[in-house]
Amino acid sequence: MCGIIGISSNKSVSSSIINSLKKLEYRGYDSAGIATLSQGFINEVKSEGRVENLENNFDLKNLSGNIGIGHVRWATHGVPNSVNAHPHSSENVSVVHNGIIENSTLLKKYLLSKGHKFKSQTDTEVIVHLITENLKTSELKDAITKTLKQLHGSFALGIIFKDMPDLIIGARRGSPLAVGYGPSENYLGSDSYALKSMTNKITYLDDGEFCFVKKDEVHFFNEEGTKINKKVLELSSDQQNYDKGDYKHFMAKEIEEQPQTLKTGIKEYLDNMNNDINIYNFPWKIDEIKSVMLIGCGTAYHSCLMAKYWFEELTTLDVNIDIASEFRYRKNRFKNDTLYIFVSQSGETADTYAALDLCNKNKMKTCAVVNVIESSIARDSNFVLPIHCGPEIGVASTKAFLGQILVLYILSLKLSSLRNEIDNKDYKEKIKDLKNLPNLIEQTLLIDNDVQAIASTFNEAKGSMFLGRGFSYPIALEGALKLKELSYVHAEGYPAGEMKHGPLALIEEGMPVVVLAPRDNYYKKTISNMQEVVARGAKVLLITNKSKDEIISENIWESIEVETTNDDLLPFLLTIPLQKLAYYSALKKGYDIDKPRNLAKSVTVE
Ligand code: M6R
Fold first, then answer.
1. CB of 404 closer than 6 angstroms to any ligand 1 atom
2. Contacts of 226 (CB under 8 A, 6+ apart)
């Protein structure tokens, strides 16, 4: 998390830094700060909260300097206040940092013994003093090389120096960092998104590398301090996707964009002429793969769970899934005939990246399902399946979830066909249904009024539950995550059949419970489980799909019917009311929908 921007220019940089920080706020919004260099002084301004507070608290137009660094923070060490906000500066050095310095306590002890004074509770401040200390005995490049070696943990850094009027140093280990090239100015940014409004020419640093960014030149070094050459990439321009348009929130826009997300994915992977699926350049022979391991965090993990059901339904492959932060520290049995699939919208999630890195080090077959194709996870995987849903800005993942499950469904269907595990007629039928899915999503999106009417009940409750069986269970988990993330209401997702083994004790009179019971193979079983919670006083919102048959239940509070399709694809449709429920609950409470408290869009710390 945390966002970094640095600009070395021949003109004043403060307004460009502010603009970039606003774009970077999805990475953290606990505090914001800027340091510029002018007339031989480091000028530092910082505020708790949003970039807007920084603008309100300081006269930034008069913050002079042709070189500067800026930061938005997602707090790790030290409470989110203005003292702990970045940059952290001494008289001579100013630093912005994304990541965690794991040996900061030891380093601080050492630096205190050398007479350094600390102002904040952060781990970052040790970097400022360590550089200052190393500069006493080494010239600049050696001091940086030495400092980076002394730091344990993960970091992306931007550093300026009082005595170097046009130099920004960037360094990367674990956390992403990019250099951008502009006319008479160059940039440092924690991702290309921060730089896109200024340039489409980018170089990504690899782990262990650092760089010297000046207004008219950039030099790269490896961890030993040896100069290296790096490629300049040209990014596609999709700037219009970064605007909210007429929508009140990015989340609302991103929910409504889902038919388009699916159309783009379908166009990318489906061969219309032959009613087939195309996955070009798949680097392995089909019989080399005997099992699949899917790994992700949060919503991306729910996509993995969804995929497990499809892979098991459509193929005889062994399928396992794991949460990335667990996988990376487990004693894994790596297997050459396993395809390791990493699911991540941002492609920068630290735990997912670490899990990928572990698999790469063990020479496994790695595949990324990502949205950001320039991301670290995409770049370091053997094979990439992009979800092509355009930038997702709202912290709560919506269209990326549908994009991820679309690609994973397509992959499971294709593998099933290649392994001769599906009858060709069924295969073609499923492809036909898939092509119609965007239309069904479009129609299901029209349920706003139904959802708005019930949203307050969830807000007023102490807690709520989301139940589903089979294909609907991952969607129940995702619905609960959306509600807690946006409305700060306690929400639990459970397999409906599991309630009687404990969670049923939570049900009390009036508790809202969402039951996902589409008319699939599990319908009757789920309805029975629903009766168990109704009997204990729960206020049940039943979400099912349209059917000529009446709903076989009494005493439910409300019901919502989504469009209908084959069983495989119902999870896509069931997701829509849950996204809207979370959205309207948060809207009614007046919460910040695109930036829920304590969270950030891109989680680049472990
Ligand atoms: O960028 P990623 O898909 O790797 O992010 C993983 C999670 O942090 C993310 O899905 C998170 O759970 C969402 N905010 C949930 O809406």
1. no
2. none
